[in-house]
Structure formats: C-alpha cells, structure tokens
Amino acid sequence: MSLLSGYEPARSCTGSPTTGARALMSWYLGAYAGRGGRNLGIYNCRSVAGTSTTSLHGEGRADDLGVPVGASWAQGLADQLRLNSAELGVQCVIYNRRIWSGAHAAAGWRPYTGANPHVDHLHVELSWNSARGLTPERVQQVLGGQPAPPSTPPTTPPPSAPPGHPTIRRGAKGDPVRELQRILNAWYPTLPQLAVDGDFGPATEARVKHMQERAGLTVDGIVGPKTWARLLGG
Fold it and tell me: Considering only Cβ atoms within 10 Å of each terminal Cβ, which end of the chain, N or C, has fewer?
C-alpha cells in the first residue's frame, strides 16, 4: 500500500467516460451492488459546484460510487482507495464531508467544505495514467472483491421512491415535508436551517433546488422519486 502524490486537474470536457473510470465502476458494482452500491455517474460536462473550474467528471476521470447513507462499509472502502492510491492511480477521494487528495497526500483526511456533502456517494478521481489503463482485474488484485461481468454496463435502473414518500412540491404539508426538511438540514449544516414545520414553502423549495442542482437532477423544486431516492440513499 502506498499513497499517490500529485494532482492532475481537469482542463476541458472530453465527451465520454475513460476506460479506467469504467473499469473502477465495473469492479465496484460487482463487489458492492449486493450491499446497496450504485452507479451515480461518471461523465458529466460541468463545473465543480459553486466554481468555474471544470470537474473531473468532464474528462470522464471521476466516478461517483453511490452508497446507502450511513453504510458502515463506505468509510472502509474510502480508506482502502486512499491507502492504495498509488497502485490504483487514485488522486482524490471525497466522502462524508471529508477529502483526501494527492496534492496533500501526507495530510490524510481533511474537512471538505464544498456544496455537496457527499454523504450518499464516494467521489473518486483518477490520474490520467490510471484513467487510460486501469482494469477491473487490477482493482480486484489490489482491493479484492469481484468485477461485474463485462456484459453488464455500469448503470442502474431508474430509482423509485420508498413507500410513504409521495411526490411533494411547494404548498404541500405534513410528515413527508417534515422528513424532507430534516434531511435537507442534515445535508447542508452550514446553510441556514429550515424550520421543520411540515410546510413546503419558498425556503424549502429553494433548498430543494439547491440540492437538485448539485446532485445533477432536474432543478424543478419538486421532490419526486429521483429526488427522494437520492436524498434517502436508496
């Protein structure tokens, strides 16, 4: 085990996921789909939330490894990716409001203050060398587990809202709104806290749109199946 030292920032969007990012996602789904692991995306031509800096998703060098919120195994996986970062070409890991980066390799986990708290996924970035050459078999060799079969694309079915979580929007009232407000407060503890009053008013709608924008969802302020699934980590 050894730490990767250095960091290669993104420069511009490239149009597709890299081979290495697909390989890491394929291994992850094979090893963790049975424990709730999901593919939350690889390629996305966009800037880092709240900045004008191109995200590594725009170069197809970043995987969002979806995890159930609070999963006991998620931090262990994050630690293994960090500790084996040189072998895997991992240059950055963000999870649960903490970040490790090859730019500060010896500093260990540091507080992450970006807009997205990353409580429902591990954001994992690859160096260019790894993005071009990493294979599922190499990840398995280093971390164990099993890669997904080559014929299985790294995708997941459309999410559905759990029972008791109807589609809600501005004007809605009741317990589902209270639960939404509590979750949003937990996701964004540095923002002004919403009143947990069960009243879906303009402040709650604005916070929902804030979350949807940063999660790559349709920004409409409506909490339907996709938004509920992302908030609940299901």
Answer: N
